[in-house]
Design goal:
It holds the Pfam family DUF1816. It comes from Hyella patelloides LEGE 07179. Residues 1-20 are annotated as: Disordered. This protein is α+β, with helices and mostly antiparallel strands. The chain has one domain (25-87). It contains one helix and four strands. It has one helix spanning 47-63; strands at residues 25-32, 37-44, 70-76, 82-84. Strands 3-1-2-4 form a four-stranded antiparallel β-sheet, covered by helices on one side.
């Protein structure tokens, strides 16, 4: 059984501030402790599509031995798709 833990990155908000949420797409945001990264997968037109797709992304990360996986389905507009620890 796989256990996902939430990394402590509360001080970092990657949600757009001035965007109209109705004009944003759905994205799967996955944060990992090791490697220390934030990944964005999408865009998706519907939240359900993102929810279904997240399991494939989780499986890929587990195969790559990622640790401390936290998943959030969110409406956003990421500027980059992978954010490394040194970019926080």
């Amino acid at each position: 059984m796989n256990h996902y833990t939430k990394p402590s990155m509360e001080k970092h908000s990657f949600q757009p501030v001035d965007e109209n949420p109705s004009q944003l797409s759905w994205w799967v945001q996955i944060t990992t402790i090791s490697p220390s990264c934030i990944y964005y997968f999408g865009p998706f037109e519907h939240q359900t599509e993102a929810t279904v797709a997240q399991y494939e992304y989780i499986q890929d990360l587990l195969e790559e031995k990622a640790k401390g996986i936290d998943i959030e389905i969110t409406k956003t507009k990421p500027e980059v798709l992978t954010i490394y620890e040194e970019d926080f």
